[in-house]
Amino acid sequence: MSSRRWRHLWVFLVVGALSLGAGALVKRPDAPLDLLCSGRSAHMLKAPAGAQWLLYQYYLDLRAEGLGDYKTSARLLDTSSGQVLGHLHRTASFEHRREGRRLLIHVQHSGKSETDNLQEPQLANLGLFLFTEQARLTYRVRHLSADSVLISNGLGAVLFCEQNLPRN
Q1: Separation of CA 85 from chain center
Q2: Tens digit of pLDDT for each residue in 81-137?
């Protein structure tokens, strides 16, 4: 190979390496999340009278624009009898933005049902979203594919989310 070709090859390699390095250093703005999350989960709780199941459903809408919404409902069941021991219904709306692999949330409004009767120790696994107005929270976001993510509270609970379909 001639020295001229070697020179061109080295220039190409150096320029390519510099371009890759510059791309890694330049922070690109994160695209807004536009996700719809829903699901069900169950957690076994130990109680003095025996085991109990906390069953809950959640719905989370992280719109690309405007406030996000979160709704959850839960039932506490006695394992041996199947009797419902308690329940709750909670809602929250919040501002949100993504920074890298983190989801930052600022709770604007929250509400709960007047008939809620579960105690805080029973709700430990529902800690993904605190229903406290003006709370500032952060959660880890992990992309599973181009259109699905997991949102984790760091305590073992995760929400599975998929990209919202285009609105008409």
Answers
A1: 28
A2: 889 988 989 899 999 998 988 989 899 998 888 888 887 766 766 655 567 788 888
Is the model more confident about 3 or about 50? Answer: 50
Residue 149 zone, left/alpha/beta (φ > 0; ψ -120 to 50; rest)? beta
Cβ-based neighbour number of residue 38 at 10 Å = 14
Please give the single-letter amino acid code of residue 14: V
pTM over 0.85: no
Distance set, CA 80 to CA 4, 53, 130 (Å): 83, 10, 30
Phi-psi map region of 127: left, alpha, beta (phi>0 left; psi -120 to 50 alpha): alpha
DSSP state of 119: -
| Integer Cα distance of 85 and 68 in angstroms | 31
DSSP label of 124: G
Cα dist from 37 to 62, 64, 72, whole Å: 8, 14, 11
Structural domains of the chain sorted by starting position, each given as residue range(s) with its CATH number in brackets: 35-163 (2.40.128)
